[in-house]
UniProtKB/TrEMBL annotation:
Lineage: Eukaryota, Fungi, Dikarya, Basidiomycota, Agaricomycotina
Key words of the record: Glycosidase, Hydrolase, Membrane, Signal, Transmembrane, Transmembrane helix
UniProt entry tagged with the keyword Signal: yes
Taxonomy, superkingdom: Eukaryota
The name this protein goes by in its record: Six-hairpin glycosidase-like protein
Matches recorded under Pfam families: Glyco_hydro_88
């Protein structure tokens, strides 16, 4: 391949149509911020999965090449998989499992029972591809310990829903992303369909408790806890929580569908698909003309309720995934509008409020929502441990272009999505959200694949120009990938 030509071809396309797409340099900056920011258990798990989805799609659960993935790592994916394996290695090494310790979550001392399971996908992949034979780390044992902990130690409701918290039974919408995708992936990699059934059952139970028919099927955030410092409940319809639920369900659908057991789980996939659509319908009924969700979707923007680009990115990503996996295009027009708003340039006509969300220097104001000012981290046990940031090098080589995102309305100059909910305090506006950065990667990944597959349902979205953008990005990504591989 004549690489320099290909580079300039891609660059030309990108410069022509950059108005509503992030450039590769933008994405690299977003990825680097995610790497430095992600420290809590769910942030590490979310980071690992977003890296797979965007940079190593052959090892993603969304890969149409099928599951289980290849047991050997092709040379052209070694560098892209390195940060994912690094997360698994750091976490499992810190765990220090021994023969006398009972089953435990992948991150010890985390008050959340559900969150550490999200790292399980990276740990299972590390085992599957034989990383342990090189570094001596027992990934299978750690994954098994997390599984047994989740199934046999964590408290449950009387009908079997596994608590999101260690110290008491409390269900969080977040858990749908953290736990069932791990159970399903474990089931497929070990040929244990009981675990696929359990993944489905958990989601069904969670929906029974969290779906709010009085709010047209939006999901509540947190229920059943004793509403004290350890377990503040949150009956509000947290936008990110609705996104976690839809995204977790889509991961389980993909894991089933791309596995050898797809036919055995067709009715479960059908149910899950209808529950994803139910959330999309409920959420988009509430979005206003900015095409950015508020932190609690059914509460209009006000002095107490801010816009949240993190949940908007996550929800939009799930609409493209639903288009690809389920052939469901009904909400594509909404997702396209969200994506255009999220990636709008400061001057762009689609950005009706050019200063919207831009952080002023020194502005640390956090607006408190009426419904919740509870702290996610404060509600963790005092021994809550954060895993030390991985020493992983960012994906891009030092020579890859990185640039400030100074021209984008919804990113700070140094490349953080804004405005966002504080990921450690779900009722409060924050500054840097690692999970928000991961949601941007998920949006980019799903959008790229949607475009590469011919933008199914694009007519419903009424846009054709977007196809050019995606193709240019895909072409550029491949070019950069091959440059890195040959570097
Ligand atoms: C990776 O996926 C592509 C399609 O997305 C496929 O053509 C290719 O064979 C896959 N490679 C491996 C090693 O599975
Ligand atoms: C690696 O090569 C395969 C073809 O063998 C291709 O499908 C895949 O996209 C490549 N992966 C990356 C990350 O470049
Ligand atoms: C095994 O792990 C448990 C729990 O982490 C710890 O209390 C115990 O001291 C460890 N035992 C050994 C021999 O390392
Ligand atoms: C670990 O990987 C091996 C294949 O190398 C597989 O047989 C085993 O079931 C895996 N264990 C887990 C817990 O995934
Ligand atoms: C609430 O649950 C926590 C965790 O189990 C417990 O420590 C605390 O005592 C409980 N508070 C009340 C008032 O029941
Ligand atoms: C599947 O996993 C469950 C939970 O770990 C276990 O109890 C069961 O024995 C496994 N089934 C098979 C066939 O391995
Ligand atoms: C417009 O920007 C201002 C200043 O950042 C912000 O307070 C306001 O919420 C934005 N309005 C809309 C509709 O985006
Ligand atoms: C915004 O508009 C100003 C004035 O027309 C122009 O100088 C600047 O380059 C524009 N910025 C972008 C990102 O288009």
């Amino acid at each position: 391949m004549h690489r320099p030509l290909a580079v300039s071809f891609a660059a030309t396309l990108l410069s022509l149509v950059s108005a509503q797409a992030l450039s590769e340099a933008d994405i690299t900056t977003v990825t680097q911020n995610l790497a430095t920011g992600a420290q809590q258990s769910w942030e590490l798990g979310t980071r690992a999965q977003s890296l797979l989805d965007l940079y190593v799609p052959n090892f993603s659960v969304f890969s149409s090449t099928g599951l289980p993935p290849s047991a050997s790592v092709p040379s052209n994916t070694t560098s892209a998989l390195a940060p994912v394996f690094s997360i698994a290695k750091n976490v499992v090494s810190a765990l220090k499992l021994n023969s006398t310790s009972g089953p435990s979550g992948l991150v010890g001392g985390d008050g959340a029972a559900g969150d550490p399971a999200s790292i399980g996908v990276a740990v299972l992949l590390a085992n599957w591809t034989g990383q342990g034979s090189g570094d001596g780390v027992d990934y299978a044992k750690a994954a098994q310990s997390q599984l047994e902990y989740t199934l046999n130690v964590v408290p449950r409701t009387s009908d079997g829903a596994i608590s999101h918290r260690v110290a008491q039974v409390q269900l969080w919408s977040d858990s749908v992303f953290m736990v069932p995708p791990f159970l399903a992936y474990y089931g497929v990699l070990t040929g244990n369909t009981t675990l696929l059934t359990e993944a489905y059952n958990q989601i069904k139970l969670y929906r029974n408790y969290l779906r709010d028919t009085d709010a047209k099927n939006l999901w509540k955030h947190i229920v059943l806890g004793n509403n004290t410092q350890d377990g503040p409940n949150d009956d509000g319809h947290w936008s990110t929580g609705n996104g976690w639920a839809a995204a977790g369900m889509l991961r389980v659908i993909a894991t089933m569908k791309n596995s050898p057991y797809s036919k055995d789980f067709s009715s479960q996939q059908k149910d899950l698909a209808s529950w994803v659509k139910e959330i999309h319908t409920a959420m988009f009924a509430n979005i206003d003309s900015t095409n950015i969700f508020t932190n609690y979707a059914d509460k209009p923007a006000s002095s107490d309720m801010f816009y949240d680009t993190a949940s908007t990115s996550l929800i939009a990503s799930t609409v493209y995934r639903a288009a690809l996996l389920l052939n469901d295009h009904s909400h594509l027009p909404n997702a396209e509008k969200c994506r255009e708003a999220l990636f709008a340039t400061s001057n762009s006509s689609s950005s009706s409020n050019s200063t919207f969300g831009r952080r002023q220097a020194g502005d640390s104001s956090a607006s408190h929502s009426a419904s919740a000012s509870a702290s996610r981290s404060a509600s963790r046990s005092s021994g809550a441990s954060s895993v030390s940031p991985s020493s992983t090098a960012p994906l891009a080589s030092p020579s890859a272009t990185t640039a400030p995102l100074s021209k984008l309305a919804h990113f700070t100059d140094d490349g953080w999505l804004t405005p966002v909910v504080n990921p450690h305090q779900f009722g409060v506006q924050g500054q840097n959200s690692p999970e928000g950065q991961a949601f941007v990667l998920e949006l980019q990944a799903a959008y790229n694949e949607w475009v590469a597959s011919g933008s199914p349902g694009a007519n419903a979205a009424g846009r054709t120009a977007s196809a050019v953008v995606g193709w240019a990005w895909v072409a550029g990504c491949v070019v950069v990938g091959s440059l890195l591989a040959y570097a």
